[in-house]
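Chain A, query sequence.
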Amino acid sequence: MLKLTQKFDLHRDVVFDILRKEASVCRVKEYSEAVDTCILNIERDGSILYSWKGVTGTTRIGKFDSNTKQNKLLYTFDKQVCVSSCSLNKEETLLAVSLAQNTKGEERLKPISKCLTLLIEIHPINNTKVLKAVDCRVKVQFLHQETDRKSVLESHLLLFTEDGYVDLYHVLLSKQEGYRVVMAYPERLSKTAERIVEDFCWVQWDGHTQRMYYLTLKEKFLLRCVQFYSNQNCETVVELVLEMPANSFRTVKFVDLGFDHYHVEKAGQDPVRMQVFTDRTGSMCVCYSQPLEDRQELTYTVVLVQKDCSKKFRVSLGGDDSPQNSSQLHPLFIPVGYYILVYLQGYFLHCINSRQQEMLCHSLFLSGHDANLGLQCQAADITVLHAEEQSSSCLLDLGSGRIHTAELSPAYLLQILQSDTRSGCPSSKTDPQRLAALHCLLVYMGNDPNLELKVIEWLCDNMNPLESFDQIQEFILASLYRIGYEKSLSLDKVLPYSSVSEKMDVPVCLLEVPGVFCTTELHIQPVFKGKARGLQGFWSDLQWNTERTKYLDTVPNPRYRTSQIQADWDKLRSERRPSSFMNHMEENTKKVLSMVNTWCLDKKLVPLFQEEDHQQRMFIGLTVDKLREHLNRHLPGLGKKKIDSLVVNYVAKLLELIRRVLESVWLKHKLGPRILCLTRQGSPAECSVFHFMFRILESTRGLCLPLPPGYHTLFAVFAVRCLPHHTFLQYIDHGFLLLTETFVSRLMTDLDNSDANERLKFSILKRLPEPMVQRICHTWDHPVSSASISRDYVRTLLEKQNKNKGFAFTERDKPGFRPEFLPLTYLAKTLSDIEAQAPNPFEEQENVDARFVEETALMQTLILLGFEKK
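Chain A, predicted structure.
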């Protein structure tokens, strides 16, 4: 499930260098004894602090620079000590160390106490100041604020104690002899210490963002966050009440405050494990787990602060194989982008979608043999490190000393898509997994064109809709959601995300997960305090996301439903609308198509966007209008200009997306440039493309989405070549085929007048609206077509002629007069008079011979009288 990339290896990057240095101290060629190297802390800049046992009976502390890949010795204790916590200031002038009491009597610390906390000058090595000598654990951590000053003569140190309080030390420094940096007034340090927190039972430090989260218990558990600023000030910015059992924390818990190799949790003292994750987009997730007493079930909670909700999952572990070791009772929480991976080794792996949390089917739930992260160690030995990158996390294996960046594996997700059955379950049982994997590939990883191409290949190979969802609809909506969300985070809850939410009856398999029970609590009500309301950056984004979620939760149907356009589309097709409305629709369409034309259409591999296609143009304009209206209603703060740009881009990307899909199919089946030729029968490859185009048409029609101009013409060309004529006509009658003027014109001119083609042309003409017949008919070189032209010509002339009540046959000597058939004579006389008075209305289309009209009218009259066979 995870793609692991090694970033650091303690043995390779540190131990080899240490052995070389120890060999130099011993003056031997090679030093092979154990040095007991331990990772102590990882600072904000990625520097790794570690300790090792020196050859001369010393304990040394070093630093590995992740940028230069170099090691540096920081400090040497003249005897072996147990370093339980360590931190280095940004300027590398001060080292804070907490030493744990050694159990060996002859090496006890003096004075005898469980923990001794020291502040050491190391530039150069000079004085040592004792900060604490107490009977509880103490964690140390320097603040690392960004500053533009070249020389900083002040450092700030946090001390976290197991007694439940946090002190902040402001350490003033001074320079001596131009290079020596020493503490100024070291005797005043303890007196000037500032108490930041009075009472906590759990604390987490986030070095990248300089935030401290802590949990305190009054009547309920209250989570607070303290933000440290670059001006050395700090304040509580958010408070959140958490629903947890009263005995959740029997001992104080430290998270992300270094690694204590000399402290072991006693059995039963770890009933709850908890972590807070944030990312730059303004989201905050609080995750904690609690096993039940009988150890047959495990409960974990994911609090989505930005979504103003909390989701509680109860997972059945089942059978006699439930974990017995307390370290195995807690899942591992791993943030990967906006997904939270919840992993209990050997039991389950849940990939929780924190952005689209409404329905379980957008999260991935795996169990049994499928629940495997690909780790080469026990999950209990893994520590999750906060990383600045949004798309990956860092995992530290304390046993081997290796650090890996962890990303979701696209190959594994594609494997889920492509599998017919997993774990022996029927195909319908895997539909939720496929849906979650598809959305992860398209929305989370969708910027990779090669990955998108592989998803399109999967669509081509699986053209039939799945039992629980339409994969083409999901592909379109998920891709468009990602594109829109990249433009503006505000579109999160107003753009369509999935076709599943469009359905009235969602399949049960998409709503339930076997062995997993989920309850959702809405309105968790985080409280933003202090200057948080005026901040720029993360806290303002989080607050804005939370307030927007609260507002949209009170609005019925805030997410745009494409099916809402159906009634307006039917009305647009069936009624004649005012010209002003049609002009407005046309202006919308012009904006969209002008944007499409600026994109990569140079190849023109697929013949789209090359004709007017009036109906699709109106549909495109209507889609723009309705989506713009929806966004203006729910997101007026964006402004009309930005909303108009977002909407036009959204619809243009829709058309471009369909073109890109067809282009991929074109390349896959190696279709040539003569695809629009109607005289050849369709090949097997072209039949496959036709069926895929039909699936696209079916899916987009179900969502009421427009298609690129020219799509229906191209589809009709494939249909007439790949289908028997009677089946082709049935497609037309059932509304699957839309006959465009471009297609019918090509059909009339390209196909010869064989009996089968004549029948096809007659059948098509019968199904066309009258205005189109008049425009199309003259392109067909056929007697019946000519007769139709003549009839239309006569009808047009007679409609314009004022009716005369009498008519005298006095012009017998006029050339061309035929008294033998009076109805024809009357018709010819009337046409001659009209033509003399007015110009020919068909003169721009075709010159009509009066003699030809006369003969045609005679033939038609004889047919009607029964004297001539049709």
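The CA atoms of residues 138 and 485 lie 44 Å apart. Residues 640-669 form the longest helix (30 residues).
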